[in-house]
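Suppose a colleague, Dr. K., hands you the sequence of a protein chain of 96 amino acids and asks what its three-dimensional shape might be. Before reaching for any lab equipment, you can write down a predicted structure in token form. Begin with the sequence itself:
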Amino acid sequence: MPCAQTRLCIRNGRRGSISLSVIPAGYDLIETYVELASVEGYFQHLEGAPAKDPDCPNVKRPGHTMANIRNVLSDVAAPPSFAGPADLNAYDVFVG
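The predicted structure, expressed as tokens, is then:
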């Protein structure tokens, strides 16, 4: 699974992590919320404006489910650096 090096950090008094870019040359990063926005049951979460699902008020990222992620990644090819079987897609690599 391609992944970035990460480090723990603090920004504006909030704990988090920061990572190096894993975007190959010639490719763009599309934020997850852009793709998930078209999925029924997804509630957008942006920094400073947390998402709220009235049916699941304690869930911090409503809509970030494996089913929704599979929905948006199933038609996307595996990353160009992926050295596994050619018939796997981006979702297969993600869960792999």
